[in-house]
Design a protein that fits this description.
The complex is a heterodimer of chains A (412) and B (371). Chain A has 13 helices and 16 strands. Chain A is α/β, with parallel strands linked by helices and 412 residues long. Chain A is globular and about 70 Å long. The chains are: A alpha/beta (412), B alpha/beta (371).
Chain lengths: 412, 371
């Protein structure tokens, strides 16, 4: 018999707020949460908007986040893991699984990049000063490597088993959940803390800007004439356990993780396959892995970045998989609320998908006034969203490097 | 579900040479490291003969090394092309740090106009995985792992998981690193890298010592093709993958770390379906840092259990510390041992004490015991 895996706890931080309840309330309010970026001096940029979260200390008052010197993103992750374990009814200091069978699989593209940011800014400043009075401080670089982040997080939560940073670009968050599923199914781990995260920073803002992928007119996935995306800060953590062990300890599941898959486009390093073949293979594999037929899927949380090519590629992938049934499946891109959270996106949007199933509410895609006619047949939810009675939903992510990942989630 | 995973192809690029035969020749011909400084840079590498060379013309060095190693491993695994559904898992500790550093500098100097789209897109963390998929046309799951020195072995672990869970026929696993002046500078200032490290002035690793002073950063790549043993492969396999186990040491104190490392080695031997006494050879994690003392103490603890393998510290003495890559080079060093019927383990411990152990045996030996 197949091993069932449950999502027993979640935590989420985006510009919408902190935690599942705040997120649901904000999704129902149908207000995008973008503002002038504050984390760096964006005044030099034509596009200055993004979706930043509150500071970690504000998000998690009273929680030991490791000290103010620790990278902002890592402090947020620590706060989220603490909250997700509590949501799962677990005491971080008294986890039942032995340390070597507790694992950590996190997706991120930047990890502690803000530390490198600090170092490089100081270095540049000192280089331009003829006789600098201060010394270049290398300490921030010690916190930059992904292994430093893993170490600090693992030690905080007594995780003694495998720990990974998965850097599959914008598919990192969902890929990490997919890998966690394998670890639980194989019996190699008893408890896996999985998820994804990325802060906003000048490096990515400038980089995506240089590729002309940012939008002046806001994030409007699947809108006719859309220009691109806006970046957001996002953290999503899921506590995953085998259903059997969850029930044995008397816990309750927020959702079931029925299946997952990943695939490679092998098409281009940064451009999606216009026909969405890799994405289609990934979604079809995830459904097969979940033993779910395409006509059982009742909601799709889209990758939906808002870039002209990405949205079209995703549309073709969905059409390939769902065929004539596609118009009957409600879909939405919640990036229209909180931007593209990069390595966080897959996990953040998986949690949004779980909340949609739990609360019976499929959120709309904001700011879409006229859907791109090239995506005709895709039911992109608009004003008001829709009540949702579905039991099974799909969340998918596609990234640079031709990396794809998809998750199939269901009500408990 | 079968637990049998075989290594059916291998490839490498490094300071010792531009293919895996160079490492094998070094293992065979150089009984000891001598007193020479480690070689730390890849020399004479020509990217023009790589598959899909045109799309690699702007790629960063570790991507080129990684593609070369993966292509060699794929060729050896029995054919011009791997099945399209094959997966891949690569690791890198430093990744595209050079491109990121250059982009940052341009950005800070020239503002938004200084942001180079080439540096940004070729500098994404999974450029290596993306280019390997493109070059070898691999359409299965493609994962890029960040982390410390032992992330190369963690890539092997995830590759093994993909074979078992996803029923893939083949997975390419590997790691790649390139020389980074920024990393060398940072490691020196943090007291981890030797003075002169990276330019070959002086070896930072003293052979056989249990408490080193500093490591010597290096570069290169290694890759393996993994395959399930059902059905049996058409060509002879290089080795059987018996176990890969990982842990995060707590770093409370050296004694605790040593005990946890000893426990990890016991777990790996157990997962391999045997005991520590069965392991006749160990590729050491010692790299001239605090890791040396942790490993030495762990081995002393395990000696009481009869664990007294031949411990090889030659690889880093020959060609420095190439982070995620070195343990995979050590796995290549172990191939003659397993071919002769021995069981070999490779241990890797990163500066932040992420630790992994790989256990290999002859292709015809017993299968892995399931957890």
């Amino acid at each position: 018999m197949a091993v069932e895996v449950a999502v027993s706890g979640v935590a989420i931080v985006t510009s919408l707020g902190v935690g599942p309840e705040a997120t649901v309330a904000a999704l129902r309010s149908e207000q995008p949460r973008f503002a002038e970026l504050q984390g760096f001096d964006a005044s030099r940029y034509e596009i200055r908007r993004g979706a930043e979260a509150v500071a970690p200390e504000q998000a998690f008052p009273g929680v030991d986040l490791g000290g103010a010197r620790l990278d902002r993103a890592i402090r947020h992750v620590i706060g989220c893991i603490d909250a997700a374990l509590k949501d799962a009814g677990l005491d971080a200091d008294r986890l039942a699984a032995p340390p070597h069978r507790r694992e950590l699989v996190l997706g991120s593209t930047l990890v502690a990049m803000l530390q490198a940011d600090r170092f490089l800014r100081q270095e540049a400043r000192l280089r331009s000063t003829p006789a600098p009075a201060e010394r270049l401080r290398y300490r921030p670089l010690a916190d930059w490597p992904p292994e430093a982040a893993l170490f600090r997080i693992a030690r905080r939560f007594g995780i003694g088993g495998l720990s990974l940073i998965v850097s599959n670009a914008c598919a990192s968050g969902s890929a990490s959940v997919a890998l966690a599923l394998d670890r639980l199914r194989s019996g190699r781990a008893d408890l896996v803390i999985a998820g994804g995260f990325d802060p906003t920073c000048e490096y990515t803002h400038a980089g995506f800007g240089s590729l002309l992928l940012l939008s002046r007119s806001g994030c409007r996935p699947f809108q006719a004439g859309r220009e691109g995306m806006l970046l957001g800060e996002g953290y999503g953590i899921l506590v995953l356990e085998r259903r059997e062990s969850l029930e044995r300890r008397g816990g309750r599941a927020r959702a079931r993780l029925l299946g997952a898959a990943a695939s490679s486009d092998a098409f281009h390093l940064t451009q999606p396959d216009p026909e969405g073949r890799g994405a289609a293979r990934c979604i079809a594999s995830a459904l097969a892995d979940a033993r779910v037929a395409p006509d059982e899927v009742g909601y799709v949380n889209l990758h939906g970045t808002g870039t002209p090519m990405n949205d079209l590629s995703e549309f073709h992938a969905l059409k390939t998989v769902f065929g004539a049934r596609l118009p009957q499946i409600p879909t939405s891109s919640t990036k229209s609320y909180f931007g593209h959270t990069l390595g966080g996106a897959g996990a953040v949007e998986a949690i949004v998908t779980i909340l949609a199933l739990q609360h019976g509410f499929a959120p709309p895609t904001l700011s879409v006034t006229e859907q791109d006619p090239q995506t005709a047949g895709l039911d992109v939810l608009k004003d008001g969203g829709r009540p949702l009675r579905a039991r099974v939903a799909l969340s998918s992510s596609f990234g640079f490097g031709g990396a794809n990942a998809a998750l199939v989630l269901a009500k408990p | 579900m079968s637990g049998g995973v075989l290594l059916v192809g291998a490839g490498a690029v490094g300071p010792l040479g531009l293919d895996r035969r160079a490492i094998e020749a070094a293992s065979r011909d150089r009984a000891s490291a001598g007193d020479a400084a480690p070689k730390t840079r890849v020399e004479g590498f020509d990217a023009s003969s790589l598959p899909n060379a045109k799309s690699l013309r702007r790629a960063t060095a570790h991507v080129l090394f990684g593609v070369a190693a993966a292509a060699e491993a794929a060729r050896e695994s029995g054919g011009a092309a791997l099945p399209e559904e094959s997966g891949l898992v690569f690791a890198s500790a430093l990744g595209s740090a050079n491109f990121s550093y250059r982009l940052w500098h341009e950005l800070l100097k020239s503002g938004p106009l200084g942001a180079s789209p080439v540096l940004f897109s070729e500098g994404v963390p999974n450029a290596l995985a993306g280019h390997v998929a493109l070059s070898l046309r691999l359409l299965g799951p493609g994962h890029m792992l960040g982390g410390g020195s032992d992330a190369g072995l963690r890539a092997v672990s995830i590759g093994r998981d993909l074979l078992e869970s996803r029923r893939l026929s083949r997975v390419v696993v590997g790691a790649a690193e390139e020389h980074s002046e920024l990393a060398v500078r940072a490691y020196r200032r943090l007291g981890l890298a030797a003075r002169g490290a990276g330019d070959g002035e002086r070896p930072g690793i003293r052979r056989g010592v249990t408490r080193g002073r500093a490591l010597v950063p290096s570069e290169g790549a290694a890759a393996f093709v993994l395959e399930r043993d059902d059905p049996p492969p058409k060509r002879p396999a290089l080795a059987r993958l018996l176990a890969v186990e990982s842990a995060q040491l707590s770093r409370r104190d050296r004694e605790s770390d040593a005990r946890e490392l000893a426990e990890l080695l016991r777990r790996a031997a157990d997962a391999a379906g045997g005991s520590l006494r069965d392991l006749s050879w160990l590729g050491s994690a010692a790299n001239g840092t605090h890791v040396d003392a942790i490993e030495a103490r762990a081995l002393a603890l395990l000696a009481a259990d009869g664990f007294e393998p031949v411990v090889s510290r030659r690889m880093r003495a020959w060609c420095g510390e190439a982070w995620t890559v070195t343990p995979l080079w050590q796995a290549l060093e172990a191939l003659p041992i397993v071919a002769a019927g021995g069981r070999a383990a490779v241990l890797s411990v990163s500066p932040f004490c992420g630790a992994s152990v790989l256990v290999l045996a002859a292709a015809g030996s017993a299968q892995t015991r399931r957890p």
